[in-house]
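Hi V.,

You were right to ask for the full record rather than a summary. Here it is.
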Amino acid sequence: MDNPQTNRTVFILASGVDMILSGIVLLIYFGLLPVDISSWGIPRWVIGLIGGVWFAISTAVLIYFLTKTDTPE
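Predicted structure:
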């Protein structure tokens, strides 16, 4: 994987999948998906914190690689 374009594509796909997964966690936290998180033994705020930070980081990575130019230095 020495090709920079391939690396960029992999990061875009991985961060897109991360956004989807973290979005599902946030939907569970906000109660929009019918999953009972109280039976997991984890405080509710921890689920929201993990989902929010995960979503923010994956969004930042996706935006970075979508706006990154391919000009050599």
